[in-house]
Design goal:
The complex is a heterodimer. Chain A has a single domain (3-238), classed as Class I glutamine amidotransferase (GATase) domain (Rossmann fold), CATH 3.40.50.880. Chain A has seven helices and eleven strands. Chain A has helices spanning 15-24, 34-39, 66-75, 77-85, 95-102, 163-171, 230-238; strands spanning 3-8, 28-33, 49-52, 89-93, 115-118, 126-134, 146-153, 157-160, 175-179, 191-195, 201-204. In chain A, helix 1 links the parallel strand 1 and strand 2 (28-33). The radius of gyration of chain A is 16 Å and the shape is globular. By secondary structure, chain B is an alpha+beta fold. Chain B contains 31 helices and 39 strands. A seven-stranded mixed β-sheet of chain B has the order 16-18-15-19-17-20-21. In chain B, helix 24 runs parallel beside helix 25 (700-720). Chain B is globular. Chain B starts with a strand and ends with a helix. In chain B, 58% of the residues are buried. The chains are: A alpha/beta, B alpha+beta. The interface between A and B is large, with 56 and 62 residues.
Chain lengths: 241, 931
């Protein structure tokens, strides 16, 4: 049985539907509170997939995902690195992506922050559907070329620390998900998601768990049905089969 | 020591907040030049410079986008902080994370520094600070960081008795006023009589408890008083609402008027709950905090329903004045409407989004009658296993307080919201405004649902208005309760026993738990760092007894507290204000058409909707916007495992209320149900909620208006067979200025909730398939009183308000719901504000269309009349005959077929009256509101 751990903390709020998506994809799902995981990081050994779902951890008080990123960097980084090295999969969605970036897991798994996800240039929260395209090295995105998903954030704008990082991330295929027509965040090179060197870590601003059903897509009554987001979770589970 | 950290925006990045302030200042004709925004953090504790740097670089800033300064200069701008004692979530978070990082921080607060390029004169400075940058109710400009920390002082117990036994009437009223008790003379006399009977003077705490329990806000005295008209006894207002529900007697209603929310059956296993609250007064004073705590409060109503329902959706409905009002037209002591609109919207956004609850449905009405007194309605929908609906307390159950700590927040909120707003409200009511902490509430929510599922909760209710006083007093009214006030966890020391008891600090709930379950319950909360404290227990002496450090500070009978309030008879006057009127026919219908589409009530609310997370929890079926088109209501799947769905809609129209409150009520009931049916709902398992927001009901005319609306509520619920499951009234929405009063127009919000057997029945309103016939269902009359067209033409309080035909209306609504189920329709849209003109344009946004109408009315009246009971539908051409058969006896007009070349063309009686580029219409519709 493929086992997925959903990390919860104060302000996590997409855990239930993310668990539903993983279960639908065939995984066995358990949610673990951050405090418990910080006390016993070795729990991770029992799992194949580690997911940080969306939300507003600690209210995004000091920047989106910042506080939980500090906790992960300080208490869980080594264990997470071993987890990825062992072949485990890591998925961070929205706030989870922000956390992966700010804790130095993405893109280089070196514990250092090389880019940030900051306030969208329009300056406010936006919930809207967008069209995305992928560049295909990431396990989660196998067989997906284009996908339609919703974003819902105020801080989804990718900004790199320097050009060197940006070049590496783009040229070596770390950037793996791009806004195709409308970029709600005005993100560097329209990046919406990013993987690591192994392709086993994915951080993404859009919400695949909000496109699980036929009726998820806003145009489902006009013949454009939803459900594509589920493929990302199925890819993760299938990876272990 | 106090360390200060200033965090700014690095060169090359946009300072969005600084730019925003500069733009906002321009609206007040202030040229600030460049504005730079800095976050400022005040760190108190015995820490080294190195530790301060560590906080600066690795905790409070982002290495990519921020600049950091730990010996900051604050010249050339304004340093702003929350007032001491106002909740500061950022400060709390810094304390939490530095504790984990083992940096010795004692206390932390956040602030901001606004650097302004140009020098402002005194007047500009005043406007800039108080109207653009901050809200003086909760924030202050400071010179020194010492001003941000509250100096805790020890509280020394001293029992306060209030001598009333021998007071004369004048003195009784003085006591009521001085204590902000909002009790009238009859009530004060009744209290005096009670304490004479037990032979002692009351304590301050006892008086406060009685005042809170008897407040209009908590006891709904107006709704419980007998109404008389010309000497005839008309019964109580509440009896009308209740009777409708009793007489309809729907077996699928599971909770009606007895818990914190109403509930209907979802399926055999689950119930859905719904509650809508008003939060007007706090929102007038501090829109952001007021609206946020409004949402926070109604979510706690859901959590406090049964043994705890899980919130699955929010709704919000607002009434505002025109945000484009000139600055000089806004009286002193009143916030500018734009400020209120923005504050309220962002307050709802930040609370709802952080809670992870989708905001799925709402409405916004604009009228300058709401300048002094905006209306903010917040709704919460929940899901709960049916076997968890029944709750109850027994003697011996422990009283556990969970969630946030208690401070001085919101003291006198319950009595405050039962008073009229005055020019001084901004000053005197500071403590009545609370700042919410959604993350605290989310943590509490997760623990409550977990404890409920473990079977550890016997009863639960929220600490809303009146705080512990209201929560414990209500829960223990049939048993008795004792509480040890010194056990309540405090945000800071110095609170008196009475302050602890009546504080309205947010994010707190009270749980009744069996002694044997207590330890396990406390453990659930401890695991996720949520406070949970045993503060007392339920007793069997039917008394409310409070202790502070062993001293009895309150000892009164529950019976007196809950049944002692004297209710007076209230006389009403019924006025008929409606008169017909004609206005000159316009020369250019295209211009008029665009004008109506641009009316703020009609125009797109997309700028609001997209700031709300309306898709979290993953079950949205009908979103507020499906592509670029607004929906008539919302559909969600609250239980992802089930294909059943919940449909939610609303109706509100204060413009009608001003002219005819009876027809207004009938119209908004029908509007809510029309919206529901358009989305795919049906009347047979739909329930409604009433929220009355009226002015000064001590005025017999306004009380008469209220009576008429309530009477319509009874009659129309009956004809549709749609029961009320919950309701709320917000009265005394009036504002005193100089010697005059202003009351808001009679306003009723009807919120509807129904269950759809299969989410696939969900309908949208855009035209879909070329060639399908389009029909107008329902007759159009000259009913333009309070219509958007009349308002556009400057006619405010005259004209005939649309009537609802008691025989035809339920028949048509049932036929449409039935038609959806038989697959007749590809698109359904109801005709409401803006009439046929607005409805048909919305349906055409994707491709345009050409339609032809027949009428004996003037084209402008016909296109913009707001007659009820009308729909426009796209009929599947294969099923046209079946549709016609099924709608026999209902007025129908075939107005054309789907298809267009990007123009909207409308002919009336063979004459071309509208010919517009549909993209222009869409631009008018979507660009109307952009504050």
């Amino acid at each position: 049985m493929v086992k997925a751990l959903i990390l919860r903390g104060p302000g996590t709020n997409c855990d239930v539907e993310t668990a539903h998506a993983l279960k639908t994809a065939g995984a066995n799902v358990e949610d673990v509170y951050i405090k418990k995981l910080m006390e016993s990081p070795e729990i991770l050994k029992d799992f194949n997939i580690f997911v940080i779902p969306g939300g507003f951890t600690y209210g995004d008080d000091l920047g989106a995902g910042k506080v939980m990123a500090i906790e992960i960097e300080k208490f869980l980084f080594d264990e997470l690195k071993r987890f990825v090295d062992r072949g485990g999969l890591v998925l961070g969605i929205c706030n989870g992506f922000q956390i992966l970036v700010k804790s130095g897991i993405l893109p280089f798994l070196d514990g250092k922050q090389h880019l940030t996800l900051t306030m969208n240039t329009r300056g406010m929260f936006i919930d809207t559907w967008i069209e995305l395209e992928t560049s295909n090295r990431c396990v989660f995105l196998k067989g997906i070329k284009n996908i339609s998903l919703p974003v819902a954030n105020a801080e989804g704008r990718v900004v790199f620390m320097d050009e060197e990082v940006q070049e590496k991330v783009v040229n070596e295929g770390y950037a793996c998900l791009f806004y195709r027509s409308f970029d709600p965040s005005d993100s560097a090179l329209h990046i919406a998601g990013m993987t690591d060197e192994t392709g086993r870590v994915l951080g993404m601003m859009p919400h695949p768990e909000r496109n699980m059903f036929r009726h998820s897509h806003p145009e489902w009554k006009r013949g454009r049905e939803g459900g594509d987001g589920l493929r990302i979770f199925i890819n993760a589970v299938e990876y272990f089969r | 020591m106090i360390g200060i950290i200033k965090v700014g925006t690095r060169k090359g990045f946009r300072d969005v907040r600084g730019e925003g302030i500069r733009e906002d200042a321009k609206l007040f004709n202030i040229d600030t030049g460049r504005v730079d925004f800095f976050d400022v953090y005040f760190i108190k504790g015995d820490l080294s410079q190195e530790e301060l740097e560590r906080i600066a670089l690795s905790v409070v800033s982002d290495p990519v986008v921020n600049t950091v300064d730990t010996s900051p200069d604050f010249s050339g701008g304004f340093l702003i902080s929350y007032r001491p004692g106002v909740f500061d979530s950022v400060g709390e978070t810094i304390k939490e994370i530095t504790r984990i990082l083992k940096i010795p921080v004692e206390n932390a607060r956040s602030g901001r520094f606004i650097k302004v390029e140009k020098t402002l004169d005194d007047k500009q400075r005043n406007i800039f600070l108080n109207r653009v940058v901050m809200n003086p109710v909760v924030e202050q400009v400071i010179d020194s960081p010492d001003e941000v920390f509250i100096e805790p002082h020890e509280y020394k117990f001293r029992l306060i008795n209030v001598p009333i036994i021998n007071a004369d009437d004048e003195r009784l009223m003085e006591i009521s006023r001085e204590g902000v008790l909002s009790l009238n003379l009859d009530e004060m006399r009744r209290i005096q009589e009670y304490f004479r009977g037990i032979g002692r003077e009351p304590t301050d705490c006892e008086l406060e408890t009685i005042a809170q329990t008897w407040s209009e806000h908590c006891y709904h005295k107006t709704f419980k008083s007998t109404i008389t008209h010309n000497g005839n006894n008309m019964g109580t207002l509440f009896s009308y609402i209740k009777r409708a529900t009793e007489e309809i007697d729907a077996p699928w209603t599971l909770l009606t008027f007895i818990d914190n929310a109403g509930a209907i059956a979802f399926d055999d296993k689950y119930a859905v709950t719904f509650k809508v609250e008003t939060h007007n007064h706090p929102s007038a004073i501090e829109p952001y905090g007021g609206a946020g705590t409004g949402i926070g409060g109604v979510i706690r109503d859901t959590l406090g329903t049964g043994k705890g329902a899980k919130p699955v959706a929010n709704t919000d409905v607002f009434c505002f004045a025109n945000p484009e009002m000139e600055l000089e037209d806004v009286p002193s002591g009143v916030l500018h409407p734009r400020r209120i609109v923005r504050g309220v919207v962002s307050g709802v956004r930040d609370y709802g989004n952080r809670m992870g609850i989708p905001t799925v449905n709402g409405a916004v009405c604009f009228s300058d009658d709401f300048l002094h007194n905006p209306l903010v309605f917040a709704g919460s929908i929940g899901v709960i296993p049916r076997e968890q609906l029944k709750k109850g307390v027994k003697p011996g159950y422990k009283i556990v307080l969970v969630g946030g700590k208690t401070g001085r927040d919101g003291i006198h909120g319950a009595t405050f919201s039962s008073m009229e707003l005055t020019e001084e409200s901004l000053d005197v009511s500071i403590s009545a405004v609370q700042i919410g902490n959604p993350i605290e509430e989310k943590k509490m929510l997760d623990c409550i649902i977990k404890a409920r599922d473990m079977g550890l909760i016997q009863s639960i209710t929220d600490c809303g208005a009146g705080g512990l006083s209201s929560a414990v007093g209500e829960m223990g009214k049939d048993t008795g309760a004792k509480v040890y006030l010194e056990r309540v966890p405090l945000k800071y020391s110095g609170l008196s026993y009475t302050e602890i008891w009546i504080s309205e600090s947010q994010e707190r709930m009270v749980i009744a738990v069996k002694e044997e379950d207590l330890e396990r319950l406390l453990e659930v909360f401890r695991e996720e760092d949520v406070e949970a404290t045993v503060i007392g227990e339920f007793t069997n002496d039917k008394k409310l007894v409070l202790y502070y450090d062993g001293n009895v500070v309150c000892d009164i009978d529950m019976d007196f507290l809950h049944n002692g309030v004297p209710l007076s008879e209230r006389k009403i006057t019924i006025l008929d204000r409606m008169e017909d009127i004609d206005i000159p026919e316009p020369d250019n219908m295209n211009d008029v058409f665009m004008g109506v589409i641009r009316m703020p009530d009609v125009a797109s609310k997309e700028w609001i909707v997209r700031q709300y997370d309306h898709e979290v929890q993953g079950g949205s079926v009908l979103k507020p916007f499906m592509g670029s088109l607004p929906s008539d209501g919302a559909i969600i799947r609250p239980v992802l495992e089930s294909e059943r769905a919940v449909v939610i809609s609303n109706g509100i129209n204060p413009h009608y209320g001003k002219i005819d409150p009876y027809r207004m009520a009938a119209s908004v009931i029908e509007e809510a149900l029309r919206n529901l049916v358009s989305c795919g709902g049906k009347l047979e398992n739909t329930a409604i909620l009433d929220n009355f927001a009226f002015g000064d009901t001590d005025d017999p005319v306004i009380l008469g208006d209220l009576f008429l609306s309530v009477k319509a509520c009874y009659e129309y619920a009956k004809i549709y067979g749609v029961p009320y499951i919950s309701g709320k009234d917000s009265l005394h929405n009036k504002y005193r200025m100089g010697d005059g009063f202003r009351s808001i127009p009679p306003t009723l919000l009807i919120s509807a909730i129904g269950v759809i057997e299969d989410y696939r029945l969900g309908m949208t309103s855009e035209f879909k398939t070329q060639g399908n016939p389009v029909y107008l269902i329902g007759d159009t009359k000259k009913e333009l009183g309070g219509s958007q067209y009349f308002l556009y033409r400057g006619i405010r309080e005259r004209g005939i308000v649309p009537e609802v035909d008691k025989v035809l209306s339920p028949r048509v609504l049932r036929a449409v719901a039935d038609g959806v189920r038989k697959g007749f329709f590809k698109a359904v849209h109801d005709v409401s504000q803006g009439g046929i003109g607005a409805a048909i344009s919305e349906m055409c946004f994707y491709m345009g269309g050409e339609f032809s109408f027949e009428t004996d009315m003037r084209p402008d009246y016909f296109l913009f009349s707001e007659s009820n009971t009308r729909f426009i539908v796209e009929v599947d051409m294969e099923k046209e005959n079946e549709f016609l058969e099924s709608f026999k006896g209902i007025y129908l007009q075939r107005i054309g077929v789907v298809g267009g070349n990007g123009r909207l063309i409308i002919d009336v009686n063979g004459e071309r009256v509208i010919d517009l580029d549909i993209d222009h219409v869409y631009t008018a519709f979507s660009g109307g509101i952009k504050w």
